[in-house]
Amino acid sequence: MTRQDNGKVALVTGAGQGIGRAIAERLHADGFRVALADIDTDKTDEVAASLGGEQAGALSLHIDVADRQSVFDAVSAAKDRLGGFDVIVNNAGIAPLSAIDEITEEAIQRIFSINVNGVIWGTQAAAAAFRELGHGGKIIAAASQAGHVGNPGIALYSATKFAVRGFTQSAARDLAQYGITVNTYAPGIVRTPMMEAVAKNTADAAGQPEEWGWAQFTSGITLDRISEPADVANVVAFLSGSDSDYITGQSILVDGGMVFN
């Protein structure tokens, strides 16, 4: 099927690989003009080129989500160069192991500056752009199955994702008056470079093979398979489109049945 431009613009952070890349590719296929933002622009340059480049509605941008001005600059560039702004997907994040007795001030500052502050800066920048353009919009952020149930070995990561869910609920109430919806998607165990690193590091720390590391995270999946990035992108595509207009303040689990509410 030939791609049809839908007249809308989305920005995806952490779009160079994994879930972020899958989201950007799906939104572009759905007709969005997409800004692929990442701290590693070599990766987003490659993805944007594979989608046809800026003339085809795929723009590579540098972003450091821990830096508020960098986030505002990326949103402004997307708005100006792609001709509008309608959706932000605050996807960028990190997931280091964090044994309770080894947590440091530096580790807390680093992970919260990316996983939580990045969502806050993205929400601020997107809301400002929507209001400047005189319309509502959609703010979407990455939570996690580990933001619904605390997971062992990744206490700081779980804490940041619980924080994202709480911030999202408040932001949804505050921004509804402007026609802005605010939601999160909560992946489970997804086959991405970040998850591969977590599984390997878990196994290495226990002196076990990598397969053992994966098993520590996958044994509770009801559908009995690891998620692919496209599974998550499907849900983000729904949250980005008009079919989700009456949904706000929610965290949609995409975990194959690990957590039941």
Automatic annotation (TrEMBL):
Short name of one Pfam family for this protein? adh_short
- Keywords, alphabetical: NAD, Oxidoreductase
What is catalyzed by this enzyme? (S)-acetoin + NAD(+) = diacetyl + NADH + H(+)
Select a single GO molecular function from the record's annotations and give it: (S,S)-butanediol dehydrogenase activity
PROSITE patterns linked: ADH_SHORT
* Family statement drawn from the similarity comment of this UniProt entry: Belongs to the short-chain dehydrogenases/reductases (SDR) family.
**Entry-linked PANTHER family:** 3-OXOACYL-[ACYL-CARRIER-PROTEIN] REDUCTASE (PTHR42760:SF133), SHORT-CHAIN DEHYDROGENASES/REDUCTASES FAMILY MEMBER (PTHR42760)
NCBIfam families listed in its UniProt record: 23BDH, PRK07231.1, PRK08643.1
Which protein, by its recorded name, is this? Diacetyl reductase [(S)-acetoin forming]
Species, as recorded: Microbacterium phyllosphaerae
